[in-house]
Structures are given as structure tokens and as C-alpha cells.
Amino acid sequence: MTAFEDFLQTELLALDDQNLRRSLRLVDSPQGARIRIDGRQFLNFSSNDYLGLANDPRLKAAAIEAIEKYGVGAGASRLISGSLSPHHELEKVLAAFKKAEAALVFSTGYATAIGTICALIGKDGIIIVDKLVHASIVDAARLSGAKMRVFGHNDLDELEDILKWARRRRTSRADCKVLIVTESVFSMDGDFAPLAEITELKEKYGAWLMVDEAHATGLYGSRGAGRVTEAGLANRVEIQMGTLGKAFGAAGGYVCGSRSLIEYFMNRARSFIFSTAPMPATSAATMAALELIQSGDGDARRAGLWARAEELTRILGLEFRPPARKAILPLMAGDEAAALDQARSLFDRGIFVPAIRYPSVARGQARLRFTVTSAHSQSDLKILASTLQKTGHTAPQAATGPS
Ligand SMILES: *Cc1c(COP(=O)(O)O)cnc(C)c1O
Predict the structure, then answer these.
(1) Ligand 1 pocket mutation, candidates 105, 137, 187, 283, criterion most atoms within 8 A of CB
(2) In what order do the strands lie in the sheet with 328-334?
(3) Cβ neighbours of residue 178 closer than 8 Å, sequence gap 6 or more
(4) Would you call 181 helix, strand, or coil by DSSP?
(5) How far from chain centre, in Å, is Cα 315?
(6) Under 8 Å CB-to-CB from 53, ≥6 apart: which residues?
């Protein structure tokens, strides 16, 4: 074996030893409440397809029609080979949906975070993030070269202390920009950020605020516009971003804000400039999803989702102030091996739920992460309840408590 192969094998074995090795499960069906893995059907509690749109006939028809009209690939970056009209149409409706002047679409949410954060803040700036923000935000902050400061999860006092420190630093360096980044709904615990209070603080200290709505868009607020617009903050939060791969059931990422912000990103966001545009069919499917999300059908799906979420909350023995409105529910295991064991014993009984481990969460914070969707039925949840009773995996406590 070459030294190179040796290195790879050693690293993989080390992951094995810590119960942190990951592998792919081959799914040979569309996403949905039920999926087929290796020819066997499973009840699926692993997906972020919150509104059951990933396999919706209207999205599929829109994608197929766009493929007929525009073909498959976009050919190059939008700044190079010309910008296909489905992307423009999507950006227009997305901006209106988010009550923003303009929007820009990226190929993934991850690429959105990297491109936008690095475009705004460089090595002279300061980025302040919640301890539990998504890896894409942490990676962007590192790549930007800015000073990164982390505040305890939703800890407004610590955020204010850091803002005071940043203000002192800024008085000595006029070019020092300060950006706060948080999520409106956190990806591993499903809990909320106090957006109004954070907005007050950023205004008091002259910082900018970016909110990632990956797990909120489509779910919260009037017609699913998200928690920023629900809180009436759309014209105070400088940068709103999210993914088109979760509740939208498609793929991609978006950012929205003022017209000049979007012009700026078009010129400065490197993951937009130096990357092939998304497939036009993806934007066409997303547009169909957006129409559905804003319709009465969308309202009905959200109502169904929250009803299922309440049932799942009860089944897992978690307690939240009603209405819970949490589609992500963690069942804490702590130990990585314990989480894997629990996931395996549920898998053996036809329930697919991921064991989330480091580095997705801190070491010793391993958990089963249940996500519920509007495509689940009441009887799906009854099956889960009786299976959990058989395996004995119910009801320790929640990761973060009431929110
Ligand atoms: C999933 C997620 C992303 C990344 O979006 P993709 O479109 O999957 O790349 C970014 N931020 C948060 C909070 C997420 O949960």
C-alpha cells in the first residue's frame, strides 16, 4: 500500500473507532414519507422536504417543460453565457415573496453562504455568529479571513458584550465592518432565534444582520414567507438567505435584500461568478413550488405539518409551549455509539431516522434527529410511536428545552 492509501485508511479507521464514520444509503425511490432503500420500504423521518414537494407532480411538470424548452445544462456562469430567463423569473417572485427589492439565486444554500459572507466581510472585519449556526456559515466566516466571534446559543447578553467589544475596535479602524449571522430556525434543534431583539441590538451598535431561513422559508409566516417577514423585519434585516432544497423541494440557494445588495453580490460573490448557473429546470420547478407554497394548498400543507409535529412532540415525550410549530425534533442520545445503536434498531424495524453526530453537532451531543413533513399521515406517526415503545427509545429530554 502506498503511503497515501495508508493515510486514508488510518483516518477512516480512526473515525470508525469514534463511531463517527459515515456512509451512504442507496435510496431507489423518490423522496417522501416512505422511501425504498435496497428494495425495502421505510418510513422516512430524515428529510427536510417539509411540505412533501420533492416528488410533487406540479414541480415535475414544470421541470420537464423547462427541459423541453431550455435543455438541461446552463452552459456557463450567468455572467458569461447569458442568464436564462427561468432564473430571472424566479428571482422576481422570490423577492416579492420575501418583501425585498431583489433576490439572487445560487446553485446551493452552501454556496450562497460562502459567496455572500465573503463578499461582504474581509480580513479587516468582524463576523459574529450564534454557537449553533450551520457549517456553511462557519466555513464562510473562516474563509473570509475576518475575526470570528461566537456567542452562546441565543444568548443576547453575550451578543451585546461582543458588539461592545467590536465597537471599541471600530473606533480605532474606520474600515472595520461588523456582520452578525444567525438562523431564524436552527437546523439541529428546530428552535427559534429572538429576531426582534437581535435586530434591536444590531441597530444599536451599527452592525449588519444576515438571517439564514433554511428551515423557516415555506413554513412560517403568512403564506410561508419565513420568520423575518412574519416578525415584520424584512426592511430592517440587511441580508436574508435560505435554501431552495428543503421546503421548496428542489435545489439551490437564494439571497434577498436591497437592489444594490443584489447588484453587489452579482459582482462580488465568487461562488456566483465562478460557478456554472443552476439548471434552468431547477428554477422552473422552484417557481412551481413557490406558487404552491403561497396558495391555499400551501396553507393546508402547513396546517398538516404542524398537526403532525404536535403528535411527534408527544410521541417523543418532548414538551414545548403549544403550539410547538417545530418540524425538527431531536431525541438526545449523547454518546455517539448509543445514537448509532438506536438508529440501527429503528432501521431494522423499518423506520429511517439519522443518528446525527459530530461534526454536525458537538461531541457527546449525538442524537436522533426526527423531521416530520406534511406528507406524513397520522397512522405513520402511530407506527412510529408503537415502534419506539418496542425499542424502548422514548422520552429523555429535549436538546434546548422550551422555545
Ligand atoms: C441546509 C442548510 C444550508 C445549505 O443549504 P443547501 O441548499 O443544502 O446547500 C444552509 N444553511 C442552513 C441553516 C441549512 O440548514
Answers:
(1) 187
(2) 328-334, 366-371, 355-356
(3) 125, 126, 128, 163, 166, 170, 205, 206, 207, 208
(4) strand
(5) 24
(6) 59, 247, 248, 249, 250, 289, 292, 293
Q: How do residues 330-352 score in pLDDT, each as one tens digit?
A: 999 999 999 999 999 999 999 99
pTM, 2 dp: 0.95
In whole angstroms, give the CA distance from residue 256 to residue 14.
42
User: Which amino acid is present at 83?
Assistant: S
> Could you identify the residue written with the cell 435560505?
242
Residue among 243, 248, 360 whose CB has most ligand 1 atoms within 8 A, to mutate = 243
Q: What share of the chain is helix, strand, coil (3-state, %, to 5)?
A: 45, 15, 40
- What the block records as the C-alpha cell of 117 is 459572507
CA-nearest residue for atom 7, ligand 1, is 109
pLDDT digits (tens, 9 = 90+) for 16-44: 999 999 999 999 999 999 999 999 999 99
The 10 Å CB-count burial string (b at 16+, else e) for 222-243 is ebbbbbbbbbebbeebbbbbbb
Q: How far is 36 from 26, CA to CA, in rounded Å?
A: 9
Does residue 323 have a cis peptide bond before it, meaning omega lies within 30 degrees of 0?
Answer: yes
CA of 174 to the centre of ligand 1 (A): 33
- Nearest residue to 145 via CA among 162, 171, 166, 125: 125
Cα gap 187→29, rounded to integer Å: 25
Among the listed residues 372, 351, 328, 247, the one whose alpha carbon sits nearest the alpha carbon of residue 37 = 351
Helix, coil or strand: residue 313: helix
CB-count exposure of residue 260 (10 Å: 0-12, 13-18, 19+) = exposed
Least confident of 154-163, 170-179, 353-362: 170-179
Rounded CA gap, 98 and 104, in Å? 12
